[in-house]
Specification:
heterodimer; A: about 270 residues; alpha/beta; TIM Barrel; 10 helices; 12 strands; B: about 200 residues; Rossmann fold; nine-stranded mixed sheet; 6 helices
Chain lengths: ~270, ~200
Amino acid sequence: MITKRLIACFDVMNGRVTKAQNFQDNIDIDDAEVIAEKMYNDQIDEIVFYDITASLQKRPTDLDTVRRVAKKVFVPFTVGGGISSLNDMYEVLKAGAEKISIDSMAVRKPSIITEGALAFGKQCIVLSMQVKNVGKSNKIPSGYEIAIDGARVFTGMDAVEWAIRGEGLGAGEICVNSIDGDGTHAGYDIEITSQIATAVNIPVIASGGAGNPKHLVDVFTKTDVSAAIISSMLYSPRIKRNYSVKEIKEKLSLSNVPIRPWIIDYTISI
Amino acid sequence: MIGVIDYKAGNGPSVLNALNNLNIEASLVSTSEQIEGLSAIILPGVGSAEATVSSLKEMNCLNAIEHMVLNRGLPFMGICIGLQVLFEHSEEGDVDCLGWIHGSVKKFSERAVRVPQIGWNEACFTQSHPILNGLNKSEYFYFVNSYYVEPNDKSIILAETEYGGKFCSMISYKNIIASQFHIEKSGVVGLKILRNFGLIAGGNL
């Protein structure tokens, strides 16, 4: 049986993991490679890394950090930030990532989803979307609007409509990141996550708001998502306490959420 | 030296990183000359069967690979698309594949499950094999696929997995081992398979 995935997410700036709150006020955590290796040894199912200043600084993704991380983690690894062309995608994949996450760029140029899917397979393309609860209206029937550029610019696009369109354009997965939930540690936005998971037939990833294992139980039992992103609860000093992957998985197991079982001896003799 | 076939849509670097981590001597290869001196070959894969088959044909090294694997019996490992292209035909793009193994590649039913399958799923081993040394009777691996293989000869099936029905997730046929799951991205369990493959390549298993 396919299991639910826990994805560790980290924002990277100058090769180091940083933690923001509501998209600002960043604090330094540790070297990206160190955090990635720690997460891997803690048996995380997947890792995603966002180069958060690449687009702003109009430069390509920090490939050196991608390469360093890829040498340490032997679970799937997604990279986002600074990817604006097919060639950028190729460089990131060649540096050792499995998947590309595209967000603002996909809104500006939706054809990049199709181009990427044709060149590298749809499984390579994660359509990430920043969604904000704006209330239901004729223009925004789901009640959630898409924002871009670090949640600063609103697009007038409906989140569910964009998800369906993204699937049609060739996205392999959709990551729903709640702007309201981001950094609050108050739980995922079940409402929009559920709407999108019901609307599309590709895997959906919940993101934004996880603060404790109960939030993961909620999102996996109340919606049909395939995966959930966690970050603060793993390593941020800004949260009441951090949790190990083992603790989270134990909690999920007790609630009958199917997960990749914990392995007692996660080392290998050569 | 194990050669990891390097083609544009492949994820050769990921496989190489995993082999390097295990101190197994390996490099990316793309020419006939490089292939002739190898102790084993790994064909990694992401993307589509069609793109992979046409990349392999463009590289002009397919004859060398076929000679080494099919005539000389060199240990060979195929991963994901590297499994699918070994069969005769794929529904993906209605394309003829390499035809080393009798059977075809089919699509998951979109009515039954989300497609692609992305995530950790259980492979239940149906036979014992040296490549599985140190593994349990079933293990979890990372899968990313919309298509699966259906071999004509069921006796070559080494593992099965459930996704809207049972499908073949690993095969063993003569000197060929191939898996639908990403061995290089399945944590320590995948690394054990690569370690075993390294031992087979070196004549030590």
